[in-house]
Design a protein that fits this description.
By secondary structure, this protein is mainly β. It has 7 helices and 43 strands. About 10% of the residues lie in helices and about 40% in strands. A hairpin with a 5-residue loop joins strand 30 and strand 31.
Length: about 700
């Protein structure tokens, strides 16, 4: 598809010159019954009338007068039910979008446009919801429901809505929330909202022919094509600020029905394009988070592959695009999804090939090269790159095909995608200890044989017991080591199913706090000293958190660090239980992991992993933050953890090439030691560290 505000003549572009542009829509021979009779002449009991005025064209509909620029097209969907409701050109659509729209396959882009239709339920809460990530407002009044998109002029559509008497206040907001604190009375245990029943992650794997269309076809059309066409995979546009076509069919139930009928999927997110990239890392992360939210709502589970549509762009923008796509991929990976990038052969795909070792690469390339050959070969892409069933080839651009009596305008694709659905690393948990002043245990103790554990954390309580938390399938399990060295069975403490990272810290009063990252938000769950677990409380609703760490201080305060867009934010819980606001303590922008530990003197140490190196930053007892100090310049560190000992020593553990190395900061001098090898397993991807009151250090490994 391509960014355009022109009429449907873009298919005339040369695919060899542009590398394949793009996208979709369906028309069927079946008639669509108009759900509402309206028009510029009559509308049943509620006439729709249009007249010109000095301020533009006025449309009266269901008791509301909408004043729009006189140059805008007005489309009566009751009279033309198969009309393409497209947001890439200025228009007003009156009525309900049809199930079988006649859209060109390769539309991309949004500008100011409105769809005005009768309200489904007059009792629905009235107001306007802003979705800036989609460049869209969704508004409801007593008798109408409006979808208003925008490109560069959101004020215009807000003015049109306000002039029509549509309430400007929101019944709820979809805007990215500030990292604030919500009270337990407002929030309960972490649950995903708008989460559909999950499809198997293999729903995005397929080898064979597929197609993509601008709007998801009706189920009747899909059924006809499943029976008669050579295609068994379908590309669907799940969201994004440049999604040009309306999607009346695209719901979780539609996706499930097609899956039940044997279809596989190419979920495509079409957001910011190259010229709009100003902050590549932040925008790439935000796009990934938004795409995951859209995917979850449709039923695509972790392990699925999600594709970013990056249309052809100038080579002067290459570095921004590559950084954006790298951040997109890393964020998807951090949340358990695989990454795909769609672009033209001569532009975006060539850039990926030329910079293969300089950025984080997608798992799958979706290569637009319109040569008419249904395979995955491309002279631009060496056979050694994306060679393990990691390619889709869009081999033909927009054209009509008819199967089973149903005509759809499509792009043709050939898929060879067989990606392992275990996107996140997983393994068992081992614990190795070092007594106060003594040597490390010769062998690590296997404490959890479950091979599906993705992440671990641990905390030691004042009574000498050690609690180890394991993340398995998005759920948290807690296992206890008694003071006599006996390990208990694991207990499930959070069954959310969508948790992506965990941390924990123990307070001096024996309370254990466990933090969980769910959909980019942080929830805190407490275990009282008597062993009773409480409900989870949301402490960060920002929606962009990728990693979490926490540490307790001797005065009873708890510090929780959130990694957001490569920056570290610190939030404090006072000894009386009151949560404060978050403070950015490291704005580097490229941090990949965070760890923290409190020391007996009241200082807090926070470690940041940047480009394989470890930096340590200190907060004094009085609350002043120091500059960070590089403590490991090896360049190959993949994950970190840390723990403070009763004698004031600080131990920082680093995972390097599958091994764990320990580095010590002496409490008496503040000097850092050289690192020493603790575990040479070779397959370790995660670690924890915690110390008991007797000075014993426990280091766990996930491998």
């Amino acid at each position: 598809m391509r960014l355009s505000t022109k009429k449907d003549d873009s298919h005339k572009d040369d695919p060899q010159k542009n590398g394949g542009l793009r996208r979709r829509r369906a028309q069927t021979t079946a008639a669509v019954t108009a759900l509402v009779t309206l028009g510029l002449g009559a509308l049943g009991t509620a006439p729709a009338q249009a007249d010109a005025s000095a301020n533009g064209r006025q449309l009266d509909y269901q008791g509301h007068r909408f004043t729009v620029p006189s140059s805008w097209e007005v489309v009566d969907l009751a009279k033309t039910p198969n009309a393409c409701v497209r947001f890439d050109r200025h228009a007003v659509y009156l009525g309900r979008p049809g199930a079988d729209q006649d859209c060109p396959s390769h539309l991309v882009g949004r500008t100011e446009a409105l769809v005005i239709e009768p309200a489904d339920n007059p009792a629905d809460r009235r107001g306007t919801v802003a979705e800036p990530g989609e460049h869209e407002y969704r508004a409801k009044a007593a008798k109408v429901s409006v979808t208003a998109t925008y490109g560069t002029d959101p004020a215009l559509v807000r003015s049109i809505l306000g002039g029509a008497g549509i309430p400007a206040t929101a019944p709820r907001t979809q805007e990215p929330a500030e990292t604030g604190v919500s009270s337990p009375s407002e929030l309960s245990a972490p649950l995903l909202t708008a989460q559909a029943d999950a499809l198997p992650a293999t729903a995005t794997n397929f080898t064979g022919k597929g197609f993509d269309a601008c709007a998801a076809p009706s189920s009747a059309a899909m059924s006809a094509w499943q029976t008669s066409s050579p295609y068994s995979a379908v590309g669907i546009y799940i969201g994004g600020s440049q999604r040009a076509c309306s999607q009346p069919n695209l719901t979780a139930s539609w996706v499930q029905q097609q899956a039940d009928d044997g279809w596989r999927f190419i979920p495509i997110y079409v957001g910011t394009q190259a010229s709009g990239i100003t902050s590549p890392a932040n925008q790439g992360i935000s796009a990934a988070n938004a795409a995951i939210s859209d995917a979850v709502a449709l039923g695509f589970s972790p392990g699925s592959t999600l594709y970013y549509d990056m249309e052809a762009y100038s080579s002067s923008l290459s570095s921004k695009v590559l950084a954006f796509e790298s951040a997109w991929t890393e964020q998807l990976h951090s949340r358990g999804y695989h990454s795909g990038i769609y672009s033209s052969s001569g532009s975006g795909i060539k850039d990926l090939v030329d910079n293969y070792n300089s950025y984080t690469m997608p798992d799958v390339i979706f290569d637009a090269l319109w040569n008419g050959v249904a395979d995955t070969a491309d002279p631009v892409v060496p056979s050694s790159r994306w060679s393990n069933h990691q390619r889709i080839h869009q081999y033909s651009g927009g054209h009509n095909e008819t199967w089973g009596g149903v005509t759809i305008n499509i792009d043709q694709d050939y898929l060879d995608v067989q990606i392992s659905t275990a996107a996140a690393p997983h393994g068992r948990v081992w614990d190795r200890s070092r007594p106060d002043g003594g040597p490390w245990d010769t062998n690590a103790e296997l404490i959890d044989t479950n091979d599906a554990i993705n992440s671990v954390s641990a905390s030691a309580l004042p009574n000498g017991t050690v609690h180890v938390q394991s993340l398995v399938g998005g759920e948290i399990w807690d296992r206890t080591r008694a003071t006599n060295g006996t390990w208990s069975n694991a207990t499930k403490i959070d069954a959310n199913g969508a948790i992506t990272d965990i941390a924990s810290a123990a307070l001096p009063d024996g309370t254990l706090h466990v933090q969980a990252v769910v959909n980019g938000e942080i929830w805190d769950r407490t275990r009282a000293a008597n062993g009773t677990w409480g409900n989870a409380t949301q402490i960060d609703a920002g929606g962009a958190v990728t990693d979490v760490a926490s540490a307790a201080l001797p005065n009873g305060t708890l510090h929780v660090q959130a990694l957001v867009n490569g920056e570290i934010w610190d939030r404090t819980r006072a000894a009386n239980g009151t949560w404060g606001g978050s403070t950015m303590i490291d704005g580097n922008g490229s941090i990949k992991d965070v760890a923290s530990a409190g020391l007996p003197d009241g200082t807090l140490h926070v470690q940041a992993l940047v480009a394989g190196e470890v930096w340590d930053r200190t907060r004094s007892e009085s609350g002043a933050w120091s500059n960070s100090t590089k403590i490991d310049a090896g360049g190959a560190v993949k994950q970190i953890s840390s723990a403070g000992l009763p004698n004031g020593d600080l131990h920082v553990e680093a995972v390097v090439n599958g091994d764990v190395w320990d580095r010590v900061r002496k409490g008496t001098t503040g000097n850092w030691s050289v690192s020493s090898l603790v575990d040479d397993n070779g397959a370790i991807f995660g670690t924890y560290a915690t110390a008991t009151p007797d000075g014993t250090l426990h280091v766990g490994t996930n491998a």
